């Protein structure tokens, strides 16, 4: 039986919202909005504790319409931390605009894209 | 179509959204296609972010403003950034090597990928830095 706990952890900042669901050892973070320097600390506050608890973290980026180099830094940092702890961060349903920035940074072979 | 519009913004990361909105509205007016528009907005936002992050490093809660001027003349787009932060030494503005995977250091790389040129000019009056990004469209 699948156990799905919706934490209902919606947090609204000026431009980014998120929701976290948990299923077994997988935490999925649904990010929504625009991820820039102004919200990266908040994004890290959401993602990094999940990684540090050694869960497999899925970042659903379907509804992220914009991501800049600060957002890319969060993806790199969480990916590297997960590697260090023997778990992984997987990017799911990546929006076209975010995929373009990931490819511009030549990170499509570095990050886990699904 | 020729055009020139400028707007000033408080130097803070909270202005980045407003800067993107300002830029998108101008690029919509001049009918730049969506893909290029997204790239140009990213380049502008990265340059503005560099002002906030590096030009005003260790300066909290400034009331300074930066000005962004977007001009189009004979199919050349020119985007000027004026700020009163720390003086930029152009030779020190470098992006990290792409194979050195670590957080940070990509903003300048994105700007160079997207724009034809990025030059710091010495013609600023009343400003400390004047960065000009150009691209033929």
Structure description:
The complex is a heterodimer of chains A (114) and B (137). Helix content of chain A is 34%, strand content 34%. Chain A has three helices and six strands; from the N terminus they run βββαβαβαβ. Chain A has a six-stranded mixed sheet. With 137 residues, chain B is α+β, with helices and mostly antiparallel strands. Chain B has one domain (3-136): Histidine kinase-like ATPase, C-terminal domain (Heat Shock Protein 90), CATH 3.30.565.10. A five-stranded antiparallel sheet of chain B has the order 1-2-3-5-4, covered by helices on one side. In chain B, strand 2 and strand 3 (76-83) form a beta hairpin. The N and C termini of chain B lie close together (12 Å). The mean pLDDT of chain B is 92. Chains A and B meet through helix 2 and helix 3 of A and helix 1, helix 2 and helix 3 of B.
Backbone shape of chain A: globular
Q: What would the principal axes of the Cα set say about the shape of chain B?
A: globular
Number of helices of chain B: 3
Widest beta sheet: strand line-up of chain A: 1-2-3-4-5-6
Mean pLDDT of chain B: 92
Outline the low-pLDDT stretches of chain A: 1-14
Which features does this protein show?
heterodimer, A: 114 residues, alpha/beta, Transcription Regulator spoIIAA, six-stranded mixed sheet, 3 helices, 34% helix, 34% strand, B: 137 residues, alpha+beta, Heat Shock Protein 90, five-stranded antiparallel sheet, 5 strands, 32% helix, globular
Write the layout of secondary structure elements.
The complex is a heterodimer of chains A (114) and B (137).
Chain A: E1 4-6, E2 16-23, E3 26-35, H1 40-52, E4 56-67, H2 69-85, E5 89-92, H3 96-104, E6 112-113
Parallel strand pairs in A: 3-4, 4-5, 5-6
Antiparallel strand pairs in A: 1-2, 2-3
Helix pairs in contact in A: 1-2
Chain B: E1 3-10, H1 16-29, H2 34-55, E2 65-73, E3 76-83, H3 107-114, E4 117-121, E5 129-136
Antiparallel strand pairs in B: 1-2, 2-3, 3-5, 4-5
